[in-house]
Amino acid sequence: MRKDTIVIREIETKDNPKIAKAVRSVLIEMGVPKVGTAYEDVALDCMTETYNEPKKAYFVVERGDEIIGGAGISPLENYEGNVCELQKMYFMPEARGKGLGSEMMSTCLNFAKQAGFDHCYLETLPYMEDARKLYRKVGFKSLEKPMGNTGHYSCTVWMLKDL
């Protein structure tokens, strides 16, 4: 796969079933619990509509007609403060190891800054080492407890970055 045939762009309605399938596929591959994680999120099947609100955006990684990854930014739910959350950042195996994670992080964090957020929060799983390495590389720091209430109680690693 040549990197120059891959595009990171905002999600469109036609992408909804493709990104839902990709995210669930990655979650199954990683052995992620189906409850208390993004797997069971209602939003997963209607991502365009979910992120079509102020201060929200979801970006997909497109290769031809395929969606091979994605990530989004949204205000942190159930939290008082100017904090966004990096959400549903997952890549299919064919998208990994090509620098797309760094590109996606840049895209999402630039959007978060332009939207006026002060901090970006994320939740992940302890065994998602590659993801955690990327998050640390771009400046996320570990937290001792969660912020807000995302409903993802199976995610036990919490991180925050100043924007």
From TrEMBL:
Q: Which SUPFAM superfamilies match?
A: Acyl-CoA N-acyltransferases (Nat)
State a single Pfam family of this protein: Acetyltransf_1
Where on the tree of life does the source sit, at the highest rank?
Bacteria
Q: Which residues form the N-acetyltransferase domain?
A: 6-163
Record key words, sorted? Transferase
A molecular function GO annotation? N-acetyltransferase activity
What the entry lists under PANTHER family is as follows: GNAT FAMILY N-ACETYLTRANSFERASE, LD18367P
Q: State the name under which the record lists this protein.
A: Putative acetyltransferase
